[in-house]
UniProtKB/TrEMBL annotation:
Protein's organism: Streptomyces griseus subsp. griseus (strain JCM 4626 / CBS 651.72 / NBRC 13350 / KCC S-0626 / ISP 5235)
Residues bound to ATP: A31, G32, A33, G34, T35, G36, K37, T38
Keywords of the record: ATP-binding, DNA damage, DNA repair, DNA-binding, Helicase, Hydrolase, Isomerase, Nucleotide-binding
An individual GO BP term: recombinational repair
PANTHER family for this protein: ATP-DEPENDENT DNA HELICASE UVRD2, UVRD / RECB / PCRA DNA HELICASE FAMILY MEMBER
Chain positions covered by the region annotation Disordered: 557-607
Protein name: ATP-dependent DNA helicase UvrD2
SUPFAM superfamilies assigned: HRDC-like, P-loop containing nucleoside triphosphate hydrolases
């Protein structure tokens, strides 16, 4: 903990210091990835609190994910500032809603809807429509867009016309599904995540007494990742802030990756127009990544188009030189995964902690093959969004069992023959049905197994650090850690989607599956959507401090057809590629696929031999020839699950 308030300012560069010292009035920080925006924001609060200028309970720090909120609280504690609320928009709103609901509406707050997509499917069925999973994803996303832009069903068709949106269905039909969905929720007394924000906004708008109460509590606001604020979140922020203006926002327009939820960097870019007296600070020194990583990030952005790209700032790395990014093309996906796992094992052997390594992919369904490969290579890993280790049910249960065993002592027959501490822990856990072998697949069972495996590793580490320690010593250690709410010392490699990785950083980052169809994702059709995919890759690249690996596989399975192409976004940037990334929709990035045309020659009637645009798989981009697959618009074996992008944020919120 820094000894004096001024010491909090040490470790900030002059521009960051300006942010920290501008404690009154609106402040806006526009800067690229890794330039210390989050750090400047955190130190600003810590300095204000330590100097006695800000009362901690009056500060509300809004972050984008719960993990980011947790990290900010941790940093604030290290800087000697506690008691500040660091939350996501959703969790801050839900807390207020729960508090004010009985007074404003009466009764208890309705429960949160668990299976939104199912309810949308039901609503569609009531409108006599059967939607496949891709259509459901699109329709659900569209309803979310309507809600965050505060568009009611009746106004939806006009809103589509006005914004020239590419609606997934006839707007009138979609409005009908939307309105039925809302009715079903009311009938069942449930609310969805958008409702949490909408209801909070509604109550604060209608009830001045409640709004005044909230404004009395929070007086200073900071918002991280402001480029991804949705119109609804902006409205909520406006209501919180009222006519005061102690608001500090930071963001990077080039990292706008949630526009499918209605988020827009306009709020960030127009901040000065709305707040004429605002202090605007730009940061360009990149403290996170090596010059090699920064060079690639700058190169990628130099090919970007659109409004966000017009505001980009060239990053300048402050770190020593590191290794060049590694580009690898594999024959098939399992080989890509196995080789990635091997390289990760080598990095760990070379001294990089597993917790400092991440594998990032575009959609969650890509994780499975990496989970398998890492498990086979004996590398611990964790999926993003897990709850706090010592708070997990299985870990608490294991703790109780260990405490019981420690009391029974060495005479307990259970522990007979268990010569070391970790074996004792394994023996106790085996009474809970735990075995040393991981269960197949992913999901809750696997998560539970991973938690207990982490507990065993923790016992091993403890034993190594304190030879001769007893089970009682271990239990005491576990209690202390649980009390301090520490994460386990043994951390695994992070597996996460690119959306879930924003704001975070690792020493080594593996960006995998970088093929056309995945990056950009096949359903990115318009120029804007393709640009957003490019920004997503930018977010991925800029997560790496030192080691950066980019890879793709030409076919899905061994011996399969090599029908995939590397992402267009690396054209002209990676060795051996030519030309800049092309604009335009999927399939515009060079290389002409003539396969379908050739196969048709000779057997089909002349009238059908006219060149047709090939039907491509929505997920991997492969040209489809099978009639069933063409109807589905995706390969039979390609994932059809909902993109976590749509829900990652909400899952993250729920995990906490
Ligand atoms: P992103 O856009 O990805 O959210 P950011 O701009 O918020 O990035 P931070 O996460 O705050 O960047 O900082 C990136 C890294 O650089 C962190 O490890 C941080 O501790 C470090 N850093 C930031 N500023 C400084 C500084 N002045 N001196 C040393 N290290 C710094
Ligand atoms: Mg940040």
């Amino acid at each position: 903990v820094p000894e004096t308030p001024d010491a909090v300012l040490d470790g900030l560069d002059p521009e960051q210091r300006e942010v920290a010292l501008a404690l009154h009035g609106p402040v806006c920080v526009l800067a690229g990835a890794g330039t210390g925006k989050t750090r400047a924001l955190t130190h600003r609060i810590a300095y204000g609190v330590r100097a006695g200028i800000l009362q901690p309970a009056t500060v509300l720090a809004v972050t984008f994910t719960n993990r980011a909120a947790g990290e900010m609280r941790g940093r604030l504690r290290q800087l000697g500032a506690t008691g500040v609320q660091a939350r996501t928009f959703h969790s801050a709103a839900l807390r207020q809603l729960q508090y004010f609901w009985p007074k404003a509406v009466g009764g208890e707050l309705p429960r949160l809807l668990e299976r939104k997509v199912q309810l949308v499917a039901e609503a569609a069925a009531r409108c006599e429509l059967r939607l496949d999973r891709n259509e459901l994803r699109d329709v659900t996303g569209e309803i979310e867009w309507a809600k965050v832009t505060q568009t009611v069903p009746a106004d939806y068709p006009a809103a589509v016309a006005k914004t020239q949106r590419d609606a997934p269905r006839d707007p009138a039909v979609l409005a009908q599904i939307y309105s039925t969905y809302e009715q079903l929720k009311r009938d069942r007394s449930v609310i969805d995540f958008e409702d949490v924000l909408l209801l909070t906004v509604g109550i604060l708008q209608d009830r001045n007494d409640i709004a005044e109460h909230v404004r009395g509590q929070y007086q200073h606001f900071v918002v991280d990742e402001y480029q991804d604020v949705s119109p609804l979140q902006q409205r909520l922020l406006d209501l919180w802030v009222g006519d005061r203006d102690d608001l500090c926002v930071v963001g990077d327009a080039s990292q706008t990756i949630y526009s499918f939820t209605g988020a827009t960097p306009d709020h960030l870019l127009n901040f000065r127009t709305r707040h004429p007296g605002a202090t605007v600070v730009k940061l360009v020194r990149d403290y996170r990544s090596t010059p090699q990583v920064v060079h690639l990030a700058n190169g990628l952005l130099s090919q970007a188009h659109g409004k966000a790209a017009d505001h980009r700032l060239e990053l300048v790395s402050q770190r020593d030189k590191g290794p060049e990014p590694v580009y690898t093309e594999y024959g098939d996906e399992p080989t890509e995964a196995e080789s990635t796992a091997r390289r990760i094992r080598d990095l760990i052997a070379a001294g990089v902690p597993a917790g400092e390594i991440a594998v990032l992919y575009r959609v969650n369904s890509q994780s499975e093959v990496y989970e398998q490969a890492l498990a086979d290579a004996g590398v611990p890993y964790q999926l993003r969004g897990a709850e706090r280790f010592f708070e997990r049910a299985e870990v608490r249960e294991a703790g109780t069992a260990l405490r019981g065993a420690a009391r029974a002592g060495r005479n307990d027959s259970l522990l007979d023959g268990a010569e070391d501490l970790a074996s004792q822990v394994r023996a106790v856990l085996s009474t809970k049905g735990w075995t040393g072998r991981p269960p197949a697949g992913s999901g809750a069972v696997r998560d539970r197994w991973e938690s207990l495996a982490a507990l065993v590793r923790l016992a091993e580490d403890f034993e190594a650090a304190k030879p001769g320690a007893t089970l009682t010593d271990l239990v005491r250690e576990l209690d202390e850690r649980a009390a301090a709410q520490h994460a386990p010392t043994v951390q695994g490699v992070t597996l996460a989607s690119l959306h879930a990785a924003k704001g975070l950083e690792w020493d080594a980052v593996f960006l995998v599956g970088l093929t056309e169809g995945m990056m950009p994702i096949a359903y990115a059709k318009t120029d804007e959507q393709v640009e957003e995919e490019r920004r997503l890759l930018y977010v991925g690249i800029t997560r790496a401090r030192i080691h950066l690996s980019l890879s793709w596989a030409l076919s899905r399975s061994p011996g399969g057809r090599a029908n995939r192409r590397p992402t267009r976004f690396l054209n002209g940037l990676r060795p051996g590629s030519t030309g800049a990334g092309t604009r335009g929709g999927v399939g515009g990035g060079g290389g002409i696929d003539r396969g379908a045309g050739r196969a048709a020659v000779g057997r089909t009637p002349a009238v059908e031999r006219r060149p047709r645009s090939p039907v491509r798989c929505r997920v991997c981009g492969r040209t489809l020839t099978d009639a069933g697959e063409m109807k589905l618009m995706r390969c039979e074996e390609c994932p059809s699950d909902m993109d976590e992008a749509l829900y990652g944020r909400l899952y993250d919120w729920r995990a906490a």
